[in-house]
Design brief:
With 331 residues, this protein is mainly alpha-helical. It has helices spanning 10-28, 30-55, 66-114, 128-139, 142-157, 159-169, 175-214, 219-229, 235-280, 288-302, 304-324; strands spanning 57-58, 61-62. Helix 2 (30-55) packs across helix 11 (304-324), helix 7 (175-214) packs antiparallel against helix 8 (219-229) and helix 7 packs across helix 11.
């Protein structure tokens, strides 16, 4: 009679235990992993600026060392954030409750005229103060922001040593391939961040200027919304345009609404036919639909952090496929 007893090797048991332990650790240190991921994305985003300072020469000698280049780069970023927080955001947040109330009144007027059910929009203004306070509380959570920046600075200061260490421990002599992947990530994410920030700044300023010239009293918050929503492809510009048209109609009537609509259409044509092809075509190589799907997918699982990590994760997948499977998509 044959022995049908089940035999499990020690290697199988060890692999199973380590897998379960790894899953448990991932669930318990979930927040830590997300923080480290954000810090690495910030390091990769700022690395082109660090390299710019490292290449700066005076009298044929490098003016910056790694430490000073990193600290100076982060000082620039932190200064911009502080200026935005201290001077710009508080004034803009003051306008949001009145802006929300204006949108609510306009929607209610049209709902009564066309007998539409807008129960979901009623009393929305009572939540505006809460939204503003939550937003200010988010930006004023200095401990979390400080921790993220401090971790990013430490990683950036030791970035070269981290890459050398990982290069050495990569098995099967794949260190050179690892170096190429990291280099492509630095260039890709850094270029994408620069391009995205430029588009957000340009669209935000241009929208603010246009709304100011038209005579919309909420030109500042609406311009800020247009700039921020520029990061969300397809839906972002559409939402900001609809909101601007509604507010313009509430304050200036049909003529202001038409001017606003025409102006935003012109801005989108300028963006789609000139800015995006010139700025972003060689940066990410992703279609707006793919980026939108990544935003929706990752934000549904990880919230705001997922939206921040969406494009970097797409870039990582693209770079890994390009280097590890170079013939995968070739005919």
């Amino acid at each position: 009679m044959k022995d049908h007893s089940l035999q499990i090797s020690f290697r199988t048991v060890l692999f199973t235990v380590l897998t379960v332990l790894g899953i448990y650790l991932l669930t318990t240190v979930y927040d830590v992993i997300l923080t480290i991921s954000l810090a690495i994305v910030l390091v990769l985003s700022i690395e082109p600026l660090v390299n710019f300072f490292l290449k700066m020469k005076i009298f044929n000698k490098n003016f910056f060392k790694r430490t000073t280049a990193v600290l100076f780069s982060f000082l620039i970023v932190i200064s911009i954030l502080v200026l935005a927080f201290v001077y710009a955001l508080p004034e803009l947040f003051k306008e949001f409750p009145r802006l929300v109330e204006t949108v609510q009144q306009t929607v209610e007027n049209y709902s009564s005229r066309f007998s539409l059910n807008v129960s979901n929009f009623q009393n929305i203004s009572q939540y505006s103060d809460r939204v503003v306070s939550v937003s200010i509380g988010f930006f004023s959570n200095l401990l979390a922001v400080f921790s993220l920046l401090l971790l990013s600075i430490y990683i950036s200061l030791d970035w070269d040593n981290i890459k050398k260490f990982l290069h050495k421990i990569i098995p099967n002599g794949q260190g050179i391939l690892f170096d190429k992947i990291i280099f492509d990530l630095e260039v890709g994410i850094g270029s994408w961040v620069k391009g995205q920030l430029f588009l957000m700044f340009f669209i935000g300023v241009l929208s603010t200027l246009v709304l100011y010239l038209i005579g919309n009293p909420f030109y500042a918050p609406l311009g800020l919304i247009s700039g921020v929503l520029e990061a969300v492809p397809i839906l972002g510009p559409l939402v900001s345009a609809i909101l601007a048209v509604i507010v313009s109609y509430a304050y200036g009537g049909q003529n202001m609404a038409i001017l606003t609509l025409v102006s935003f259409i012109a801005i989108q044509q300028l963006e789609n036919n000139f800015l995006v092809p010139k700025v972003m075509e060689k940066v990410s190589g992703f279609s707006p639909v793919l980026i939108l799907l990544a935003f929706l997918l990752f934000s549904s699982f990880l919230g705001v952090i997922g939206a921040v990590l969406a494009v970097p994760i797409l870039m990582l997948c693209q770079i890994l496929i390009r280097h590890l499977l170079p013939n995968a998509f070739k005919n």
